[in-house]
Amino acid sequence: MQTNSGDSGGGPRVCALTGGSGYVGSRLAAALQRAGWEVVHWTRRVGPAGRTVSFRLGEEVEAAKLAGVEALIHCAYDFGLHRWRDIHAVNVVGSERLLAAARQAQVRRIICISTISAFPGCRALYGRAKLAMERAAQSVGAVIIRPGLVYGERPGGVFGKLLEQARSARVVPLIRGGLQTQYLLHEDDLATVILRCLEESFVPPTEPITVAHEQGWELRDILTQLAAAQNRRLRFVPVPWQLVWVALKSLELLGLRPPFRSDSLISMVYQNPRPDFTLARSLGFRCRPFTVTPQMVGVSGAGR
Question: What is the DSSP letter of 234?
Fold first, then answer.
């Protein structure tokens, strides 16, 4: 364990966080720190600042590394793998090892970040892996969160790529006319849900909690809104999804990393047909409706 401080003693509560270098993980880390938590980053690259633990998803995990940790939030996922054998060995088995170590270390609260793309019958490898990770999380009594498409004032991840398209492209190829429905979740609302789940009084449900605003947005409309906020108009060109998938898969087989993964395309084509927000509503979780802000698009005076 590489840290710049020892036992927290009477200091802030300690939360171990995997995947903190990603978009969602970094936003959660900032929210936890604002709420008074000390965040210990479990990461491949141990840095000089803050408390960090050397961690590589898929490898064995020593329970002793979690000594003194009150909460664990598991956000890490290796997107660089394309074969199910490798995805399972690293993401699924790696998560099982981490969660088992957390249970052995008697970590009080464990939260596993899944995805709205995880549902029975999903075809994408990402969704299948997350379902398997959810089963491991359920075995240790973890809270499972299935967030929708996360966005914010400085978005990253998938939403960040959509914003970049709306900012720079004039012609946007769309599969199936861009009619795929997205359920959006502001990063601050996700952080609020996580902090609520960390409270002593919160009773973890046994089922995954799907968290997003319940109004679905078609992909085409999201891009149109983002472009309009920048006084731009996009031209959409329909393309066969099978052709795009073959192109992306070919690049991946050549060892290249295209800007959009072939498995993400499968997630978009075969979406969760009926996300269930009942549990989130019963827990009192409320998410704001999606709105394009000037800060999001970086244009003074822009709005929805």
Answer: -
Strand order of the β-sheet with 143-147 is 51-54, 38-43, 14-18, 71-74, 109-113, 143-147, 209-211
Considering the domain boundaries, does residue 2 fall inside one?
A: no
Given a contact cutoff of 8 angstroms between Cβ atoms, the answer to whether 5 and 62 are in contact is no
The angle that helices 262-269 and 241-253 make with each other, rounded to 10 degrees, is 150
d(C-alpha 115, C-alpha 113), whole Å: 7
- How many beta carbons lie within 10 A of that of residue 34, not counting itself? 10
Six-digit token pair at 139? 């075995």
Q: What percent of the chain has pLDDT over 70?
A: 93
What lies within 8 Å, CB to CB, of 102 at 6+ separation is 16, 63, 66, 69, 72, 110, 140
Q: Considering only CA atoms, which of 202, 198, 209, 204 is closest in space to residue 38? A: 198
CA–CA gap between residue 50 and residue 3 (Å, rounded): 7
Contacts 24+ apart (CB under 8 A), 250-255: 252/82, 253/82
For residue 44, what are the domain limits?
A: 14-296
On whether residue 6 sits in a domain, the answer given is: no
Q: Of 113, 112, 115, 118, nearest to 141 (Cα)? A: 112
Q: Using one digit for the tens of pLDDT, what is the confidence trace for 267-301?
A: 988 999 899 999 999 999 999 999 999 999 985 43
What is the domain-level CATH number for residue 169? 3.40.50.720
pTM: 0.91
User: Based on the number of CB atoms within 10 Å of its own CB, is 8 exposed (0-12), middle (13-18) or buried (19 or more)?
Assistant: middle
pLDDT tens per residue, range 214-267: 999 999 999 999 999 999 999 999 999 999 999 999 999 998 888 889 999 999
Within a domain: 4: no
Q: How many domains, in total, are found in the chain?
A: 1
Exposure string over 257-277, b if 16+ CB within 10 A, otherwise e: eeeebbbbbbbbbbbbeebeb
Asked whether the predicted pLDDT for residue 2 surpasses 80, the reply is no
* Rounded distance between C-alpha atoms, residue 118 and residue 298, angstroms: 33
